[in-house]
Input
Amino acid sequence: MVIIVETGADEQTIQRLIDRVGALGYTPHPIRGVEKTVIAVIGEKTQEKIDILETMPGVERIVPILQKYKLVGREVKSETTAIRMTSGMEIGGEEVQMVAGPCAVESYEQFLNIARYVKQAGGHMLRGGIFKPRTSPHDFQGLGEEGIPIAQQVKADVGLPFVTEVVDVRDIEHLHDVADIYQVGARNMQNFALLTELGKVDRPVMLKRGMSATVDDLLQAAEYVVVEGNSDVILCERGIRTFETMTRNTLDISAVVALKRMSHLPVFVDPSHGTGRDWMVPALCKAAVAAGADGLMVETHWHPQEAMVDGAQSLTPVDFATLMSELPAFCSAAGRTL
Amino acid sequence: MVIIVETGADEQTIQRLIDRVGALGYTPHPIRGVEKTVIAVIGEKTQEKIDILETMPGVERIVPILQKYKLVGREVKSETTAIRMTSGMEIGGEEVQMVAGPCAVESYEQFLNIARYVKQAGGHMLRGGIFKPRTSPHDFQGLGEEGIPIAQQVKADVGLPFVTEVVDVRDIEHLHDVADIYQVGARNMQNFALLTELGKVDRPVMLKRGMSATVDDLLQAAEYVVVEGNSDVILCERGIRTFETMTRNTLDISAVVALKRMSHLPVFVDPSHGTGRDWMVPALCKAAVAAGADGLMVETHWHPQEAMVDGAQSLTPVDFATLMSELPAFCSAAGRTL
Amino acid sequence: MVIIVETGADEQTIQRLIDRVGALGYTPHPIRGVEKTVIAVIGEKTQEKIDILETMPGVERIVPILQKYKLVGREVKSETTAIRMTSGMEIGGEEVQMVAGPCAVESYEQFLNIARYVKQAGGHMLRGGIFKPRTSPHDFQGLGEEGIPIAQQVKADVGLPFVTEVVDVRDIEHLHDVADIYQVGARNMQNFALLTELGKVDRPVMLKRGMSATVDDLLQAAEYVVVEGNSDVILCERGIRTFETMTRNTLDISAVVALKRMSHLPVFVDPSHGTGRDWMVPALCKAAVAAGADGLMVETHWHPQEAMVDGAQSLTPVDFATLMSELPAFCSAAGRTL
Amino acid sequence: MVIIVETGADEQTIQRLIDRVGALGYTPHPIRGVEKTVIAVIGEKTQEKIDILETMPGVERIVPILQKYKLVGREVKSETTAIRMTSGMEIGGEEVQMVAGPCAVESYEQFLNIARYVKQAGGHMLRGGIFKPRTSPHDFQGLGEEGIPIAQQVKADVGLPFVTEVVDVRDIEHLHDVADIYQVGARNMQNFALLTELGKVDRPVMLKRGMSATVDDLLQAAEYVVVEGNSDVILCERGIRTFETMTRNTLDISAVVALKRMSHLPVFVDPSHGTGRDWMVPALCKAAVAAGADGLMVETHWHPQEAMVDGAQSLTPVDFATLMSELPAFCSAAGRTL
Output
C-alpha cells in the first residue's frame, strides 16, 4: 500500500507514522516530494492493519496496491476456467451458451411448453425461478417446494440442464435434486452466509452482479464461494442502478470486458433483467457476444399475456427463435460458436 | 393504474386492451386525447395482473397509482410509531436516541472501555458487530459466537441496550439472548428470507437502507417484517452509492424527510457508514437531527489505532463527548430532547 | 397528462382541481377508484400549465403522457435520417462510419501522421480537438485558433471530413472553414445558447450525451438544434457517471437501442471517452455495432507516449488497424457494411 | 504521483518506465514489494506528462497525490473567504444568508410582490431567473432582456441585492447593471468559456454544482474563475443525480462538510432545486445550516398556482415566513446568526 501523508504534516508526525508501519511488521519506504510525502509499505497486508494506519494522525489517505480478490483473478490463473457439466457441455469454452426460460416456474404445462420451444430453437439450458425474491411481500414469491417436482419432470422431458435461484441457505439442500447450477440473485450477491454455503456444494454457481456492486465487489463475492472449495463460479452481468429511468437498470457491457480481463471465470449477461424491456433484449444479446460474453440468459414467455411475473421483459417464442437464428453470425465474428 | 397506449395504436388494439382489462376483473375507463389514449383501470391490483397487461400489444407503459407498501405507510396509520424498550426508553418519541459503539466487538476489555465512555457521554444504546459482513472473505468477520457472552457481560456492566447485526437466519436464535434490537445491514436489506424470520421475533428490527435501494424499496423491505407480525421496525439511512468518490457513500439526508412523511416508522441516521470519514460525522449528526431524525448511530473508537475494522470512520472518545455536548442545542431547535 | 389525487383528498378539493383544469382550457376526466382518484386531462399541454397544476392542493403527482421532444422523435418521422456529407458519404445509412483521430490536434506532423494511418486502415472521418474543454484550468486546452490551419492542411492532404468540438458560441464562425461536423461535448450538452446557435448553421452537429443526461434529456437537447432549422444532428453515446470506478464512465450500450427506437436521428458511440481504457475500446466498438450503432468514434495515438492528452484511452496504429480488420464481420452480422 | 506497475512486469519493462520518468524531468523512486512494484515520482506534474506515462507498457495505473485545484484549496489559504457586498453584507462570515425569490422573474407585479415578503420575513438577497436554461426548447425560457429593467426597479423598491443566472457569455455585459451576483447554473458548471469570462468581472459568482459533478470537479470549475482574477466565488450544492426517483435530485449535505474543509470559499445550499419538493425545503434548510452552510437559496411563490416555472418546489409566503422564524435556533446552535 502507499500512505499519502497530509500536506503540512510535521516531521514528528511523519516519523511516528514510519515507526508505526514498522511496528506492524512492514518495511516503510518514505519518499519526500516538493509538496507531499508518501510512504510505500512493503509486506503482507490485511484490511485490519490498513484500518489501523488509516486512523493515524497525518494520514491523508491510503492507496491499496493489491487487488482484494486472489483466487478468482487472472493474475493467479491465466487460462479461462471451463466448467464441464455432467451432460458434457462446457461453460467458458468456445461455445457460447444460451440459458432461457420463464422468470418463474408456474405450472408443469407452462414450463414444459416453454422448455420445448427453448430446446427446439437451440437453447442450451433452462432457467426458471422456484423461489423468487420480490421487492414487495405482496407479490408472487414463486411456487416454492411444490415447483421442484415440476422442474424435475420438465428436465427429464426435454433433457436440458436447469439453472435456478436459491434465496435461503436452508433451501440449498432442497434444490440439490433439481438445480444443475445454483443461481445467486443480485439482491443476495453480498449475502455472505449463502455464498459460503454454496462454496461447499458440488454444483456450479451463477453469481449475479448486485445492482450497486462494482466489478471489484463482484469478484470479491465470487471469492467467498471459491475460498470454500467450489471453483465453478459463473459471473453474470445483469445491469446496475443509475439515474437513467428509461430502462429498469443500465446493462454494463463494459463489465464483461473488464471481468474477462481481470478474472479467469466465465462471464454471462442477462439483458432481460438488465433492461426490463423485451424489445431491447435481442440487440443486447448480440452486443454481449460481441464484447466477449461466454453465455446469455434471457427470459421467455409462455403466452406472454399469461406470465405471472416480469412479462414486459420476456421474449415471445417467435422473437426467441429469431434471436437464436441471428446470433450465430455474431458468435462467428467473435470467433465463437453458439 | 393508468395504461398509456402507444401513439398510433389502432382502434382494434385499443379495444382489445379494454376487453382484457375487463376480463381481468377491472373496470376500464378509456380517455381519448388529441395524440394519446389512456385507460384508467379501477379495481384491486396485483403485480401479476399488471405484468400481464404490460405485455399486451399497444401498451406503451403502465403507471401504478397506489404505493406498493401498505402497513408501513402513513396513509394507514397517521401517528408515528413509538417503540418502547424494556428499559422504558421510547424510540420515535420526543427524545432523540444516540446508539454508539465500535464497528466490531473485539474483546471484553475493548467493548467495556468503549461502552463506559459512551454511557458517560450520554449515549442511549450500544452498538457492536458480532457477526460482520465483509466485502472480502479475507477480512475479519467478527468474533462470531464467542462474542455473545462478551456483549452480555458488558451490557450487564453498563446497563445499556444493545443493537447488533444478524447476517444469517440461523443466527437469530443465538443472538436472541443478547440483542435488544436486531440490525439488518445494508447488504441484506433485500434478504427476504431473513426479513421474514425477523417478522416473527419479539424484538425491534433496525433495517438499514441498501446501498442502491430507493426510499420505496426500503419501505417495501420493512413491509416484509411487519407483514409477519413484528411492527417494531426502525428505518436507518446510511448512505447510497453514487458517482462521488470523496465519501464512501452519499448520505441522503432528504431520505429522512421523505421517510418521516411517508411512513409512521421511526427513522435513524448512521453517518459513520454513510461517509466513511470521522471528520464528517459530527456535522452530519447535527444535520440529521435538524432534518427530523429520531435517532443516530455512530461508530466510536477504543484506541483509534487499535480498531480492527472501519477505523477511519470512528469517533475518538473526545470527539464523541464533544458531539454529545453540542447536539442538545440542535435537538432543542428541532423541538426534541437528547 | 394524468393528475394523481392525494389519498384522502376531500370532494371539495377534487372539485377545485377539476375546475382549475377546466379554467386552464383543458377537458378534465375524473376517474374515482377504490382508494385513489385520478384526473385525466385532455388538451395541448405546456410545462407552465403543468407546473401550475402541480402546486394545487390535493395533487400527489402529475404523470406526463406525451414526450417532451417532438421533432426528433420517431413518432413524427418513422424513417431514419440519413445525413449526406458533401463528399457523398451518408451518415445513418447502410454503412457504419468510423471517426478516428487524436484527442487533440497538437502539431501538423502529429495530426498528419495519425490522419494517414486512419485513412489507410479504412477510417471514414477524422476527429481532433482544437478547443479542448478540460476539467482543470491548469491542463492543456488545445491549440486554439492556431490549430485551424493545421487541420485544414491535413484535411487537404488526406481527403477525409473532419469532426471537431466547439465550446464557445464565439468560435462557431472560426471553425466554419475547417469543421465538416461540429461536435458538442458532453459538458456542453445542455449549453442551450450553443445549441441554439448551432441550429442556425449549415453543418451537421454531433451531440454527445452529457455525463448525467438521460436518453430523454439528450433527445430534448437535440430538439434545441433541430427547432432552429438544422435537422442534421448525430447523437453520440459516450458513457454516463455511475458508482463504478473501474472505468472513467459507464458506456451505456442500451442507450443505442433506445435512441434508435425513439428517434430517427443517427446514433454513434465513443468507447474511448466512455471507458477511458484503450484495452476496452475494440470489444466495445464491436458491441456498439452489434447493438445497432450507425457509427463509431475512437481516439488514436501518434506515438502513444507522446500524446498530450488522454493517452490511456487511445488506440495505437496497430490496434486501430486490427480493429478495422475485425469490424466488418460484426457489421455484416448486423446487416451493415463498414 | 505513484505509478503502480502491472503484476508480472519484467525487469526490462520496469527499467524503461524508470528511464522514462527520468527523461520527463522527474526523480523516480522505485519500491519493489513482494508481489508488486511501485514507482514514486517526484517533481512538478502536469496532466500531459501523467497521460504520457499512463500509456507506457507495464503501467497498471497512476495515483495522483496532489489535488488538481490550487487557488481555491484550504491548503493555500486557511481562513475562509468572506465576500463583502457593496451593501456591507458579508458572505461567508458569521451571518448565514438567505437568498429567496421566484424561479423566474415573470412581471414587475409578481417580482415586487415576492421581493416584499422576502424582505419582510428577513431574507437577505433576492433571486430570480431572467434567462432560464430549460431542458426542452418548448418550455418558457425567461423574460430575457425585458426582465432586466423589471429586476432593476424591484431592487430599487425593496433595497436587496440580486442574484441571477447567466447562461451565455454574450449576456454578461447586459446583466452587469442588475446582477449583484452572477449565478452559474448546474448545467453550465463546466462551460469553461463562461467561467473564464466571469473570472474577469468585478462581481461575485455563485457557482452551482453540476448534476454529476464530484466535489473535486466543482472545485476545479471554481478554479477557472479564480485563476482569471476573480476570487469572489460562492459554491452552491444543489443536488446530484442518483438512482433515487422520489426527489428530483439527491441533495448532498455531506458535500457542504467536504467543501468547507477542502476550500476556503463560502458554501451555499439550494434545497429547492435539490429536491424539487416544497415540503422538503424547510427541513433541508435546517440540515444545511446544521452541517455548516454559509447560506441558503430557496424558491418562493407569488400565488403558488400562478408561477410559470418550478411551482412544485417553491415555498408559499406563509411557509417561507415560518421557515425564517425557525431558522435562527439552528443558526444559533451552529454558532451563527441569521
Chain D has a mean pLDDT of 90. The domain at 2-63 of chain D is CATH 3.30.70.1140 (Alpha-Beta Plaits).
